[in-house]
Amino acid sequence: MSKVFSFLGKYITEIMVFFLTIYAIMPFFSPLLFSFNPDSVVAKNIQNIYTLFCHQRPQSSLFLFGGEDSQFFYTLEELKELEIVPQDSLVSRGLGYWGNEEVGYKVAYCIRDVGIYSALSLMGLLLVIYMNLKKKIVKVHWSIILLLMLPMALDGIFQFAVMFFDIGWVPEAYLLSMHKKLVTGILFGIGGALLVFPNLKDASKLGYNGKE
Known about the structure:
Layout: H1 2-10, H2 12-36, H3 41-50, E1 63-64, H4 76-81, E2 99-100, E3 104-106, H5 111-134, H6 142-164, H7 172-176, H8 178-211
Antiparallel strand pairs: 1-3, 2-3
Helix pairs in contact: 2-3, 2-5, 5-8, 6-8
């Protein structure tokens, strides 16, 4: 048992990156499986599992494997017109709204989460490879990490304020922009990776060397 804990302690960063990569990839298997079988139980289960971690609103999600005239993103009004969601629905959560073969099937988490976890897992993988090859810890100043993570935090706070205080002067194009959500998510993921993985690798290295 001590060898198991020793292994986990030494390679905790690599293990975290491995499971994080699985978490980042799995939501894309849902639309892929739906494209082969619209009644896929596995695809539905993936959607159901990820609803625990994300709101999954279809109007904030990426759609894949649709028909010839399909899009990657849809507004709530477009989804209502296409009868993907009920006409009277506000869709605060996306459970049960998966799409169809005409419009495509939504990835099991929102577009901002696509940016966050794709960047977090990819950056984590690159950091682990670099640190293992170079035998040194990547050091990035906290101000750079803050600058990377701040845009998403500010955007989230601002959007919450707009909805809570019913601020009407903010352009709808800004609130609905998928590219903004994707980019801020990617920046946040990169900043999060630079914050977590080098420090985790450093801590596991110190702990392992201390036992030797």
